[in-house]
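Dear support,

I submitted the protein below through the web form. The confirmation email said the job was done, but the results page showed an empty box. After a refresh the structure appeared. I'm attaching both so you can tell me whether what I see now is the final result or a partial one.
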Amino acid sequence: MTVLVKLAYAAAVAALMVLLVAFGVRAFYDAPGPPEYPNPPLGRQPIVTPAAPGAGIATPTVVTPTPDDLARYEEEQREYQRAYESYEHVRQDYRRNVLLASAAIAVLAIAGGAALWSRVDAMSLGFMGGGFATLLYGVIQAGSDLDEISPALIFVVALAGLVGVLGAGYRWLSER
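What the results page shows now:
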């Protein structure tokens, strides 16, 4: 029974650690928002003439956009494309920073869990599990931008995770 309680405690610590990092990122580091797509020109408002008594239903006059409206819309589309390219670069930086921050927190959590192992094994297991889950959170946040992030950075993050796993495993397995 105590093993199940310890595992449940470790799982709770791990889950709360990931939630703390995820909501901390959202609270203190806003994600960039995409630019707003321009609305197509509607031209002039349709003119509806009231129906004369007994004449039936009035039909609206369809008005096409003027050449000036179309030119303005095309310029808004070009500006949107420039703003979207800028947004993609800012989003890539945001995702990289989230990956770096979560990786640093994950390494600290794993190291803290390995250091606490002899004193409080359930808490240390929670820290290590939370560290790995936090690292996964960072990788998931980086998403499709992993291709644009430096391969050396991804290698360093993976190496830190491997060193944490091996260090924790060595410490844990050598004591048993």
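Response: this is the final, complete result; the empty box was a page-load delay. The mean pLDDT is 80.
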